[in-house]
Each structure stands twice: as structure tokens, then as C-alpha cells.
Amino acid sequence: MTKFIAAAVQAAPIGGDTAATVEKTKALIRDAASRGANVVVFPEAFIGGYPKGASFDIHIGGRTPTGRQEFADYHAGAIAVPGPETHDIAEAVREAGIHLTIGVIERDGGTLYCTALYFTPDGFAGKHRKLMPTAAERLCWGFGDGSTLGTVDTPWGPMGAVICWENYMPMMRMAMYGKRVAIYCAPTADDRDSWAATMRHIALEGRCFVISTCQYLTRADFPATMVNRITEEPSDVLMRGGAIIIDPLGRVVAGPDYSGETILTAELDTDDIARAQFDFDVVGHYARPDVFTLIVNEDPQSPVVATRTP
To answer: Which positions are catalytic?
Structure first.
């Protein structure tokens, strides 16, 4: 079985309503499956929300009660992993018979993480926490570690996720190529024209399929209780999408799409990976381990380690 259908879901969450967003997620999963999709990718922070335009009313050396409450509301909309929401999504994935990568905001104690979750028809299969929140994202998200750099097996090869500007980290990409990632998922909040060029480069560099998708988000989709520093006009677009699917020779097979909420699909053939690796295999015959070696620390990093004397 070499051929499969990939789907990139370009949509917005229900602002400030996690339960409703989970229901929308399940409906979109069913929709993608009805189009024949085998692998489905959702945007960054789809469940829990990407706070595009939020500032949490913070400045260097100062926080305010208003900003603290905005964060508390955002924290309340995040999800535990695993938890009730992941159980519901797993059931929808099982019924659809797909493999899923979806961006969420994960709550772990008092810290939030921008996380990509993996699901297979057998259930919840793992997660990747964003290693490096970008710029002001550090106001509200924690840092992942190397323990969530894994991939998930699919019938078409390993599936993994690199979130948004992590894709600009060469060593992060190389770590994923070292896992022989075949289905490279890039959930993002970057809707610039230049993003497509980045995705094409990664497909060529990794000789893998790249599926990237961004929310199509308006102010009306943004939580009403959170001040937006970009606009307060409900119809204004905060993120315009740009979903794209690319083959291992860097050829765009679907997208980029900036038209609104949509589901892009494309039939892909895993034999294209071998065809592409004929003349370039970044962790194989084109590597020079005698000159360059990447060491990746995949140990979980905990601030508290409990030991007991026997």
C-alpha cells in the first residue's frame, strides 16, 4: 500500500469555547474522512486557540490584574493530555479510520504548552511540545524538551510534527530526518507568502511529504473576553490560512489556499520518497558523519527529581 490521501484542514476554533471546538474538530475529521483522507493535519493551537493579537496586558517589569485574568481564562480553555478531550478525539479518529496530527494548547499545572498530538485508529499515540515559543509566545507558553521529538508509525511511514518556526531550526529538522520521517506535519500560525518556500525547501531537504496548515481566523473567532491589539472589528482577518501539501521533490500538489475555511486533499505515493532519495538522502548517502554529527538529548527534563534511600 503505497498510495494515500492527505488532508490539510484550514479552519478556526470556536473562540473561548473548548467544548464547542472539540465538536467542530470531530465534524471536520468526519468531513476529511468522507473525502477519502487517510492522514489529516490540523493547524497549530487549534484546540485552546492561538492568541494572535493578545498581549495579556504585559510590559517589561509589569503585569496587571486584567492581563492575569486573560491568562487565567486562556489557561482554563487549554486541555490536559491525556484527558476527556483527547478521549473524544481518539474516538472520532477510530471511527474515521484515519491518522491525525492536531495542534492544541496543553495545560500541565500552571504552565501551558503549544503541542501537537498524534492519533491513530488505535487511539492517542503521542505528542510533541514546541521546543521554542517564538517572541511574545513566551509570555504564555512553556518550552518543550527532547523527550517529545518522536514520530508515530503509519502504514505509509513515520509521521512527525514540527511546529511553526521550529521549522527554521536546522538541527530540529535534522533530528526529524534522522527518524526517517516520511509524513512531515507542519502546523503553523505563519500565513506569510514566504512560508510556502520554507515548506518546499523542507520537502526537498528531507525528501519527505510536507503537510502544513494554518488557521483561517477572524476577530469573531477570537475570544470575546480577550483584548486584541490588532483589531476589534469582528470581520477582520487575523490569520489567512495558506494550507499546502508538497511532495518529496518539492512540488506543490495542493495549495497554498488563502480563500477561507477549507480542507485541501491530495493523493500521495510513498514510492516518490525512494525516487527522490536516488540523488539525495540527507541522513544517508549524502551525509558526512565523519565531518558533521548531531547529538540530540531526548531525556525528559524535570525540575524536581525524587530519590529514595533503600
So the answer is: 44, 130, 164
